[in-house]
Recover the amino acids of this structure.
């Protein structure tokens, strides 16, 4: 396994910086990793490193081209997501870059919180990915998937006590996926909050909490579905 | 791994026959396996064998003390479940027998269809099990769990297109588990029907269908949660 390399890329005029980590040996696949609203953090780097340890090339996306300090991230995120064309282009720039980095590897995408929302948006946009996996991602969208638009298999790992994703969003999401004809797996963890994969959540925050079991089991589920889906391609 | 041994046991005056299979070496745990409404079948034996291959002692329960031929199974099952005291006693007889067979092993219970309903009933009844795992089991009950009654961790693996378990049952179940303070994981598989773990479902039946991915992924999820839960005890 390598250390992280920074990879400059761009979305139109905006300069972005990805973080790439390679496995020892030939990658089993190339995985785009979409971070939380805070952009690249040690928690997300740890997940990319775990992918490399499992034999995958992992490439962490850059949402903004700069690092947010504190709550300004919410403004940047809202601005980015306000126009679905801009939002999808920003996400696609990461996949295009990953295609250049690993042209012969099968691709997948995973994401955390806003990154989970991002990978679902890529799926709705018809991205050619083996799977997308969302960890405590937002499920709602202004652009529900069209019939047969989704190519990727979908895995959503969701804390049922996540205040940002109430149960009516869950049911709407299932309905959206069925209408689109998607292949989806949805894992709900009782009593588990937002951000359950991050062992060091921001203090003084009732919305997020690490959950060791949900973190372990969701990661294993993702690796299992990824391996199966790559075998089947 | 051994071959199956038959183990006579009883529930009151009713003679029952369990099917036991042992792993090679010291068992990592002892697992009660509750079959479908059809009682022991090759599909359930295959799952018990897979548990033994994974290092567990597995003991297949006997619901009726005899083998149903065809639709008579539904009558027998309805009669057995009509009185929760009788139903729970029948299930407890299996756990008691397993305690005698493997007194020093930590215990868990898994079940398929009616067997999934059975293991959830055992959890509601406060059985001292590391986990219970239901595969395409019925979720409704006449005796919802009391607050703090459930000791076992709960895993439900559910086909979202199972006509026997509509989405309102799913939501009621989540509410029941939360009210009881249970630790639960719920996996829903989009478009997947009842009986998804059985590669040879009865022909001419629109309710059931094998799903290779749901079968594989649910099994891996169960083994992962079981291993984690045994480590934590």
């Amino acid at each position: 396994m390598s250390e992280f390399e920074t990879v400059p890329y761009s979305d139109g005029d905006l300069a972005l910086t990805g973080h790439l980590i390679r496995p020892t040996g030939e990658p089993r696949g190339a995985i785009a990793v979409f971070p939380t609203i805070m952009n690249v953090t040690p928690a997300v780097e740890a997940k990319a490193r775990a992918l490399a340890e499992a034999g995958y090339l992992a490439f962490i996306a850059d949402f903004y081209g700069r690092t947010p300090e504190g709550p300004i991230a919410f403004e940047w995120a809202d601005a980015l997501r306000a126009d679905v064309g801009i939002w999808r282009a920003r996400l696609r720039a990461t996949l295009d870059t990953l295609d250049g980095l690993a042209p012969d590897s099968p691709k997948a995408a995973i994401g955390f919180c806003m990154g989970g929302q991002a990978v679902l948006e890529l799926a709705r946009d018809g991205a050619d990915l083996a799977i997308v996996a969302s960890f405590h991602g937002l499920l709602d969208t202004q652009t529900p998937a069209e019939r047969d638009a989704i190519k990727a298999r979908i895995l959503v790992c969701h804390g049922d006590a996540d205040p940002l994703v109430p149960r009516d969003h869950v049911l709407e999401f299932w309905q959206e996926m069925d209408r689109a004809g998607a292949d989806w797996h949805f894992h709900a963890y009782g009593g588990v909050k937002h951000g359950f994969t991050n062992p060091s959540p921001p203090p003084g925050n009732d919305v997020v909490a690490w959950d060791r079991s949900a973190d372990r089991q969701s990661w294993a589920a993702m690796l299992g579905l990824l391996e199966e889906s790559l075998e089947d391609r």
